[in-house]
């Protein structure tokens, strides 16, 4: 397979964060997700890993990347999903020479990111107070389960627990009265992703503040998965705060829009959403259901929300008369909002995914090819046009130490 990206080693890097160096002491998902965003934006992300072991995420498989001979490597797809555009150095922070190297790298970095258990890095002298004394301009970001303060700050946080505790599972899934009705976990590590995304945004804002204010100092950023997931409850949280009523589960329906649901056709299911009265009337016309337009139960969105079930049944009875492809073509041509329920393979095979160049292929040091989902950030003047394969553990140790610290190869024992 031919790679369809450029490594850009001999061309000027015009990405927006080119020239920013990030020292990345994060593992697993939330931290690597955030630092990958910074790497996509052009930052030089130096991933510090434990020698001989590396990021635990490397072993979360199968599946594992295949090398040039078609044999499995030690790089899991999980790890590959959040570690592109980084350089890996293997340094043992439990040793003096490892800690000293990290401190020296911190002195030459703009950003320091970690997701250790609260307080753990202080015993190694790698906490914010210690790092900021060496480099007052450092932007230091800690990502944790529950944040640096509060009664749960010492507890570890995992995505499933966060989805449960922050209410996401309570609004996901079928209602209790329906078969199979129970709280349901979202099929992505949403709490990790939200924490990493908020971390990347906060870091960029802190860099801007540092570089545009007279004091030109860095600062400390406290990001928690708990906070991020609660913030991401967005309109559901607002519904509760405004009404005092605990949001219910509506399955595939929307709490405040109707019709908005999964509907069954003769050969499968599709999704239809009507966001306003005009769209609803047009939908009824295209489905040849004129009686619904004048039905008092459906005269406004509020009425349609209250009477969602009989409306769904009426629409579905009509849709069962023909195939998915027929209805999707009809509704799409009428400029109505409808779509198929794709598997991931079907989603990536959609012509829109091809036109947007969603999948990138990059060469891996093992000789294999890493398929990656491209960054969704499309920028005209500073395009994100470089994709480097996720590194193996310690792949760039000698390169980085020689380049930034003038440490000759073989000086630090990482055995």
Automatic annotation (TrEMBL):
The keyword Transferase applies. Coiled coil: none annotated. One of its GO terms (molecular function) is CoA-transferase activity. It holds the Pfam family CoA_transf_3. Keywords: Transferase. The keyword Transferase applies. PANTHER family: SUCCINATE--HYDROXYMETHYLGLUTARATE COA-TRANSFERASE. This is CoA transferase.
């Amino acid at each position: 397979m031919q790679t369809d990206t450029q490594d850009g080693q001999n061309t000027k890097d015009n990405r927006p964060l080119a020239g920013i160096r990030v020292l990345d002491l994060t593992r697993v998902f939330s931290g690597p997700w955030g630092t990958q965003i910074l790497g996509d934006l052009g930052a030089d992300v130096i991933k510090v890993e434990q020698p001989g072991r590396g990021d635990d995420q490397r072993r979360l498989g199968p599946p594992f990347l295949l090398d040039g001979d078609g044999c499995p490597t030690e790089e899991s797809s999980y790890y590959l999903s959040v570690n592109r555009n980084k350089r890996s150095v293997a340094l043992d922070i439990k040793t003096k020479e490892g800690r000293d190297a990290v401190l020296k790298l911190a002195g030459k970095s703009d950003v320091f990111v970690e997701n250790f258990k609260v307080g753990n890095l202080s015993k190694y002298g790698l906490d914010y107070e210690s790092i900021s004394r060496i480099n007052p301009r450092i932007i230091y970001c800690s990502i944790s389960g529950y944040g640096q303060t509060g009664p749960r700050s010492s507890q570890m946080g995992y995505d499933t627990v966060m989805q449960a505790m922050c209410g996401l599972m309570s609004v996901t899934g079928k209602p209790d009265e329906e078969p199979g009705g129970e709280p349901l976990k979202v099929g992505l590590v949403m709490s990790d992703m939200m924490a990493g995304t908020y971390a990347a945004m906060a870091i960029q804002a802190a860099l801007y503040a540092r570089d545009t204010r007279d004091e030109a100092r860095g600062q400390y950023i406290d990001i928690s998965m708990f906070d991020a997931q609660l913030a991401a409850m967005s309109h559901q949280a607002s519904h509760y705060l405004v009404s005092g009523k605990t949001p219910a589960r509506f399955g595939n329906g929307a709490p405040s829009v109707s019709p908005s649901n999964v509907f069954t056709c003769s050969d499968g299911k599709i999704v239809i959403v009507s966001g306003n009265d005009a769209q609803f009337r047009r939908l009824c016309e295209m489905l040849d259901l004129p009686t619904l337009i004048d039905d008092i139960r459906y005269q406004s969105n509020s009425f349609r929300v209250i009477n969602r079930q009989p409306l769904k049944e009426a629409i579905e009875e009509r849709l069962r008369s023909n195939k998915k492809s027929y209805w999707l073509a009809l509704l799409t041509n009428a400029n109505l909002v409808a779509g198929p329920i794709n598997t991931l393979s079907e989603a990536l095979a959609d012509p829109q995914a091809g036109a947007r160049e969603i999948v990138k292929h990059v060469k891996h040091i093992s000789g294999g090819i890493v398929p990656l989902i491209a960054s969704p950030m499309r920028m005209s003047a500073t395009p994100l046009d470089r994709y480097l394969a996720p590194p193996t553990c310690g792949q760039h140790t000698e390169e980085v130490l020689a380049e930034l610290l003038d440490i000759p190869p073989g000086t630090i024992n990482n055995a």
